[in-house]
Design goal:
- It is a single chain.
- The chain has 20 helices and no strands.
- The protein is globular.
- By secondary structure, the chain is mostly helical.
- Its main location: membrane.
- InterPro entries: MFS, MFS_dom, MFS_Na/Anion_cotransporter, MFS_trans_sf.
Length: 411
């Protein structure tokens, strides 16, 4: 059956959304089950940070490679094999019997999962015009926070009803369905659709690009790398430490985290989709696309100082969840729209590579941050960490306005 391009692009978005949902469920399992895994493998916060960092280091190292693979072989193949590999890795975590085995499969998950996002931004860039790109991108990447939303109740229910291994096996198995859907639905856009969306001929799309070595000489690449390196750790804290923080500092049980721990991620999802749609609306009203993204990202960053208040309300889980909900909106808006900024700044043939490199730098920032959180949260206290977090997004706003510009290869 032939599917019209206008219909196919939204079906592709739907499959990417589903893939990212379970991409995040698979990585969130360890944060939701943190106390249970610490007991199972007889580790402390330092040991938990090691497990998280094995995943994150592999993720950081593979991200640039995944971006290059997408630009070299296309989004279709890279996405297909990436989802299949992380499915096997998640199931492997569920059948692990030792800490070494478990850590190995978390590392394999980290190697496989970066394939998703370079493929996704390449798809959005070639299938959607700049007047719809941020909205389409946010709908795809919304799967990240939806995954974080459903992870606490789903994982808590599976672990409490069966055991912690079941949570890994069930979540991983869904990936097999996603692989089949992707193989059936994804196709590259027709030449006329591609030319319209990137405002260039098919020949220009395929030839106009920076060489790998030239990319590193562009000012905007370094700006984007610093933005991801500095800002990503705040979102990683929400993903990897918030469920455990609510249990260990705010007094919630695992069952209560399952009931309420999803709230910040739902708020983040709805808020970030709304802010992304607002930036597209600015474009439709005549603002230059890059300027529209900058205005929106600056506005949401006004929430950053709220990090200073978290430690003062940690005894009150309701206020803690409310503050993290606003902070999560800010974080996810940057996660959603930094790739859109890349698509406005760099040629189509470079977008996946830039996202891959930037994602690696963002994960590297998270590795360092996770290490220091694991080392210091028990000694200095969470308050010092939250104070540090409050200054990160204002710094990247400054970088966004002073460093990022449209980059074009010289003829």
């Amino acid at each position: 059956m032939r599917i019209r391009p206008e219909t196919r692009r939204w079906l592709i978005v739907a499959v990417i959304f589903l893939a990212i949902v379970f991409n995040y469920v698979d990585r969130q399992i360890v944060s939701v089950l943190k106390p249970m895994l610490k007991s199972e493998f007889n580790i402390d916060d330092d040991g938990y940070a090691l497990i998280v960092n094995v995943f994150t280091i592999c993720y950081a190292l593979m991200y640039p490679v995944a971006g290059w693979l997408v630009d070299r072989f296309g989004a279709g193949k890279v996405m297909l094999y990436g989802v299949l590999t992380w499915t096997l890795a998640c199931i492997g975590g569920g059948i692990s019997r030792t800490l070494g085995q478990f850590t190995f499969f978390r590392g394999l998950l980290g190697i496989a999962e970066p394939s998703n996002f370079p493929a996704q931004i390449r798809v959005v860039t070639v299938w959607f015009s700049d007047k719809m790109r941020a909205t389409a991108n946010s709908l795809c990447v919304a799967g990240s926070s939806v995954g974080a939303i459903i992870a606490p109740p789903l994982i808590a229910w599976l672990a409490l009803s069966y055991n912690w291994q079941t949570a890994f096996i069930v979540s991983g198995s869904v990936g097999l369905i996603i692989v089949i859907l992707w193989a059936l639905i994804y196709r590259d856009p027709p030449a006329e659709v591609l030319a319209k969306n990137v405002k260039a001929s098919a020949t220009q799309v395929n030839t106009e690009a920076f060489k790998w070595s030239q990319l590193w000489k562009t000012r905007s690449l370094w700006g984007i790398l610093l933005i991801r390196f500095i800002s990503d750790p705040v979102w990683y804290f929400c993903l990897f430490w918030l469920p455990g923080y609510l249990q260990e500092n705010s007094g919630l049980s695992l069952a209560q985290v399952g009931m309420f721990g999803w709230i910040p991620f739902l708020c983040a999802d709805l808020g970030a989709i709304g802010t992304s749609a607002w930036s597209d609306r600015l474009v439709r009203r005549g603002k230059a696309p890059l300027q529209a993204r900058k205005i929106m990202l600056t506005t949401v960053s006004l929430a950053a100082p709220l990090c200073l208040l978290i430690s003062y309300v940690s005894h009150n889980p309701v206020l803690t969840i409310c503050l993290f909900s606003v902070i999560a909106i800010m974080c996810l808006t940057w996660v959603f729209n930094t790739p859109v900024v890349m698509s406005e700044v760099f040629p189509v043939k470079n977008v996946a590579s830039v996202l891959g490199i930037a994602g690696g730098f963002g994960a590297a920032g998270a590795v360092l941050f996770n290490y220091f959180v694991g080392q210091l949260i028990g000694t200095l206290g969470a308050g010092k960490i939250f104070t540090f977090m409050a200054f990160l997004h204002p710094i990247v706003v400054l970088l966004l306005w002073t460093v990022i510009r449209k980059e074009k290869p010289q003829s």
